[in-house]
Design a protein that fits this description.
Order of helices and strands: EHEHEHEEHEEEHEHHEHHHHH
Shape: globular
Number of strands: 10
CATH architecture of the largest domain: Alpha-Beta Complex
Helix content: 40-55%
Largest sheet: 10 strands, mixed
Number of domains: 2
Radius of gyration: 20 Å
Distance between the termini: 68 Å
Number of helices: 12
CATH class of the largest domain: Alpha Beta
Length: 319
């Protein structure tokens, strides 16, 4: 039997309108060295029927369908990681799909098992792929880059575009360093993907868009829920734990921590019903203090007097 090189993990929850197109960007390219893992995360529509119809002519391929009660995107990805037999893992959301160039660009690289991450770009589209909303430039490196220090990772950390599906990862990174996607959390990528980069020694950058990323008006980036702010606090807490007392890592993680802080402030200002309980304010302040040396003076003051500062934002918003 040929060794499986790549496991493609596709979580699916109520994606009847898109899952067939997603799978059709994978199935024709299947081989003995490619594995497809579909996680049905408790779908209540006819997604499962569409999945079964899509894969019925590929009985001889390495395809696994996992059925679980609805537990969220992170739990579905974690289930895929635990099941995967491939040396490398790719994630693809059920409403997105691969550019056909993905296979010819990525697969040859996986013969070099010293590579830890292959990164690439994406195009966000609305409705039709001719209607491009945004070019998502996640790939900051060009070709093979050997990493000998955290500082050499700074281009990726400064860009801080942590979409999980914009990379292919060596599976051992997840297992060796006990890296998981945090369950029941939004913004799960903001702590998980940086952790993988911190443990990577070789990164290969492809300056091409290999993913079609679908725009949704009701996505978490377009709508607000109170849980958004709490989960952003959790994300910056996770970054603080990653940094520990390492000055280099703090400097690397700082742009993401700053982005999270700015997002929280933006949500509090923009959404009249938004609030951050005092216990969460204290947790946010503790986490941000890990990175305070990298903030500008004005931001340092905001962090030091954080509860007062956030309450001022909320009072100003209500006026």
């Amino acid at each position: 039997m040929n060794e499986i090189k790549l496991s493609v993990v596709v979580p699916c929850f109520n994606s009847r309108d898109f899952i067939a197109e997603c799978l059709q960007s994978i199935l024709p390219y299947m081989s003995e060295t490619i594995e497809l893992i579909i996680i049905n995360d408790g779908s209540t529509d006819d997604s499962v029927d569409i999945i079964n119809r899509s894969i019925q002519n590929y009985n001889n391929q390495n395809i696994t369908v996992i059925h679980q009660e609805n537990a969220g995107l992170s739990a579905a990805r974690n289930a895929g990681i635990n099941t995967a037999k491939g040396k490398y893992i790719a994630f693809l959301d059920s409403d997105d799909f691969f550019n056909s160039d993905f296979w010819q660009e990525v697969l040859p690289l996986l013969k070099d098992t010293t590579i830890d991450i292959v990164e690439f770009n994406a195009e966000q589209f609305d409705g039709e792929i001719t209607n491009i909303v945004e070019h998502i430039d996640c790939s900051v490196f060009s070709g093979r880059v050997d990493i000998s220090s955290v500082g050499e990772l700074s281009p990726a950390f400064k860009r801080c575009k942590w979409y999980p599906w914009a990379r292919v990862y060596k599976k051992s990174l997840f297992h060796d360093f006990d890296i998981k996607f945090p369950t029941n959390r939004l913004y799960e990528d903001m702590s998980t993907v940086p952790a993988i980069y911190l443990h990577s020694k070789v990164i290969y950058g492809i300056n091409k868009s290999l993913i079609w990323y679908r725009y949704h008006k009701k996505s978490i980036t377009q709508t607000f829920r109170q849980k958004d702010i709490v989960d952003l606090v959790y994300a910056v807490q996770s970054l603080s734990l990653l940094a520990k007392d390492n000055i280099e890592i703090k400097k690397a993680l700082f742009p993401t921590a700053q982005r999270i802080f700015n997002l929280i402030k933006y949500m509090l200002v923009k959404n009249k019903g938004a609030k951050l309980p005092f216990v969460e304010q204290k947790a946010l302040r503790r986490a941000l203090l890990s990175f305070i040396g990298n903030f500008k003076v004005s931001r340092k003051v905001q962090i030091l007097i954080l509860p007062l500062y956030l309450n001022t934002i909320i009072r100003f918003r209500k006026k």
